[in-house]
Amino acid sequence: MAERILFKHIDNPKQYQVETYVQNGGYSALKLALKEIKPAELIEMVKKSGLRGRGGAGFPTGLKWSFVPKDSPKPKYLCVNADESEPGTFKDRQLMEYDPHQVLEGVILSSYAIGCHHAYFYIRGEFGFGYKRMAQAVEEAYQKGYLGKNILGSGFDLDVTIVRGGGAYICGEETGLIESLEGKRAMPRVKPPFPAVSGLYNCPTVVNNVETLACVPHIVNRGAEWFASIGPAKSPGTKIVCLSGHVNKPGNYELEMGTPLRELIYTHGGGILGGRRLKAAIPGGSSVPILTGKQIDVKLDFDSVAAAGSLLGCAAVIVMDERTCMVWMAERLSEFYEHESCGKCTPCREGTFWLVEILSRIEEGRGTMRDLDLLLNICDNISFKTVCALADGAAAPVVSAIQHFKDEFVAHIEEKRCPLPHRAFDFDGFVN
Fold first, then answer.
1. d(C-alpha 141, C-alpha 321), whole Å
2. Coil, strand or helix: which one is 206?
3. Sign of CA dihedral 355, 357, 359, 360
4. What is the pTM of this model?
5. What is the rounded CA–CA span in Å between residue 37 and residue 45?
6. What are the tens digits of pLDDT across the range 44-57?
7. Fewest CB atoms within 10 A around its CB: which of 150, 210, 361, 380?
8. Comparing C-alpha atoms, which of 317, 292, 20, 31 is closest to residue 154?
9. What is the pLDDT of residues 164-223, one digit of tens each?
10. List of residues 6+ apart from 223 with CB closer than 8 A
């Protein structure tokens, strides 16, 4: 990685203050855009840059903006998805806490591009410090004329309202987020219509992730060609990768897209704790298929990870060493998704419950061989059969764990205990 872009000033203890942000070049992109770039040109610039959403789906950002109807008489809205709630993800939180104006400048530019005059910043309720920093940044931006009426004398108006979420995983799904903003219980909406046509208050709406928006000022300042030249042609730019699990140096790393997973773990992450052997890694948050230790030469970009049988998602890499029981891992993740299912779709509501029941049975030495087929059958019957992707995310780690580590599941069933030598037979007291 030759250059940090989003994290360039993250270690400056005063970077969260507007004066420091401006001293480091902040809000120059906004001044340039409002003076010299028309909204339609800004959309084309972001399209040309190749920026893809950093929240997980990887959808082209400029293309998403272009779906907003220009001739609609209704207000247009931008919703900032700051509900970072998937296990292993913590990158947006750092951006909001230590460089909030970078995010806010991206919000203002994106609002200008789509014709939005009221943006909503939806932040996870548990992010108390992040909320405080973002609220301060919004207040400072109003005082300095970066928000409000006639921003920098351009005639463009924008208000930003910060809303704290209820702390539910489904609030990070774009239509669940919109439902929550409207004061309702967060549940996903059936699409179409898509939010770009009928979103918040049935008005045209764009929902963008924090990291995605933070990229926009840099694209404006340095050009679409510059951004497109970084990393793979179809997944350009840098990516903040959240590294956690059994590594010596967990944390957030801003790397060029296409950086090998091996380099992330062994160079930036300092290798596996205790010098142990790598067993598996989840490359894109807990909702994607796991990769084995033999697949870590995969490049971390959307297309390369997909070709390897998983997904880059939000690039939250969870590392597991040789001590990790994969039945235990699948059970823990299934418990999370069962708890976070909103209950709207029967396959998800019932299916995630049964995944936990069966995995617990196997983990506790009470499973049968029929349970393996039953697990795969349930996963098949909940994947891609629900309104949102939560059920898909619940099924993916279970299916891939059985696919790659079936012997471990079989051993639990036949031996009625975990086959890993370091694990105690008393499951109640075991700590991995």
1. 46
2. strand
3. positive
4. 0.93
5. 10
6. 999 999 999 998 88
7. 150
8. 31
9. 998 899 999 999 999 999 999 999 999 999 999 999 999 999 999 999 999 999 999 999
10. 45
